[in-house]
Amino acid sequence: MPAYASIEAARADFPGTERLTYMNVSARGLMPQRARDSIDRMLDERQFGDSDKPAMFDLIERTRDSYARLINAQIDEIAFVKNVSEGLNAIIAAFPWQSGDNVVLCQDLEHPNNVYPWRNLARRFGVEIRTVSPREGTIPTDEIIDQIDENTRMVTASSVTFAPGFKTDLAPIGDVCRKKDILFLVDGVQSVGILHTDVEALKIDAMSVSTQKGLLGLYGMGFLYCRTDWAERLEPAYLARFGVDLGESGAHEASLGDGDYALMPAARRFDLGNYNYVGVAAADASMTMMHELGTQAIEDHTVGLAHNFARGMLELGLPVCGGEPGPHLGSIIPVGAIGEGQHDTTDDPAMSSLHDHLADNGVQLSIRRGILRFSLHFYNNADDVDRVLDLTRTWRGHNRAAVG
Ligand SMILES: Cc1ncc(COP(=O)(O)O)c(C=O)c1O
Questions:
Q1: Which atom of ligand 1 has the smallest separation from the CA of 162?
Q2: Tens of pLDDT along 79-128?
């Protein structure tokens, strides 16, 4: 496998960057060639009957370890899930809820997949949802903390929201939760792989991600982190062979122990049956690349570009949400007015026109809640930023009235 001299050089492994100016990792990232090669190798084995099950299990453990290292967790603290919602639901369903318990979150900024599991809980078990309002497009950490009371069992937040895409200041929430023995559950899909993530430092108890965004892998594949101390107090709602510990007996994957059983250590108890090996092969290859480049270097490169992009847009008179880049801004630059439209469309004719102009010129971006969402990863470079700023300048020349 090629090892790259620099982040800039690693761009060569992303053929997608040659065709498009790709600023859409918030929807799905570009896949590197080496992930495609891993998938192809696995499909060849399947097609020609060469699949090697022990090698597939080795891949699972290697990838579990790789993901653990990516977020500073222990290998046993990682389970395989298929997406964010499955991981969140695994934790939520394993908790012994009682009527009157509550959860604190900022409902308006969470993805629906981190809202419906709580509504389900409210309906089924009478759990109270305590929600706070967004502040200037961010999740207000202080208000989340203020809402915590003696009945709070979990607090949940996205590390970066899907719209407008700002960072959440997680550490103070984690700190309070740790002191009060409240489980702090994070939706990490908009940041993991892009922003350096240390679950120990942030005091995150559980975190779910899927691999199609910052982890540059496939849909239908994800990881669940759960800190040992919490995981070993939880009883999974779903249980299958890989969640059961048959000890050192050398037990085969299909062996059944005697009547009683022990759960696997830590988060391994959330593994069920066979894995999405193809999805794992892709994630393994992409994460290997991230380890080679270094997660802090990836963050520095990507956030640096994003901040330059935001400043450039502001200089052109564009309405960048949140204004000047600051600690709220990671790798997603939202442009437009919050609440001016829907998923994939905006009610603001100027933003709609800018979106179409960029899309017609080979720029990939998305619209969420009416805002243009430009999102970057380490395969982006300064030329991408300059190109979109140049296209925006040209568009503005013809639409001066629209941007004032
Ligand atoms: C913050 C956030 N959470 C969750 C999801 C999706 O959840 P799932 O992986 O369960 O489809 C997305 C986007 O697709 C998202 O942006």
A1: 16
A2: 999 999 999 999 999 999 999 999 999 999 999 999 999 999 999 999 99
- C-alpha separations of 356 from 27, 80, 380 in Å: 18, 39, 21
Q: How confident is the model at residue 135 (pLDDT cuts 50, 70, 90)?
A: very high
Provide the pLDDT confidence category of residue 246 given band limits of 50, 70 and 90.
Answer: confident
pLDDT digits (tens, 9 = 90+) for 273-310: 999 999 999 999 999 999 999 999 999 999 999 999 99
Strands (E), 179-292: 183-187, 206-210, 222-226, 244-245, 262-263
Ligand 1 atom 16: residue of nearest CA: 162
Query: Distance from the CA of 140 to the center of ligand 1, in angstroms?
Result: 21
* CA-to-CA separations, 325 to 186, 391, 403, in angstroms, rounded: 24, 21, 20
Q: Mapping DSSP to helix (H, G, I), strand (E, B) and coil, where does residue 293 land?
A: helix
Q: Of all protein residues, whose CA lies closest to atom 6 belonging to ligand 1? A: 84
Mutate to test the pocket of ligand 1, among 107, 159, 162 (most ligand atoms within 8 A of CB): 162
**Structural domains of the chain ordered from first start:** 7-30+294-403 (3.90.1150.10), 35-290 (3.40.640.10)
Would you say 14 and 30 are in contact if contact means Cβ atoms under 8 Å apart? yes
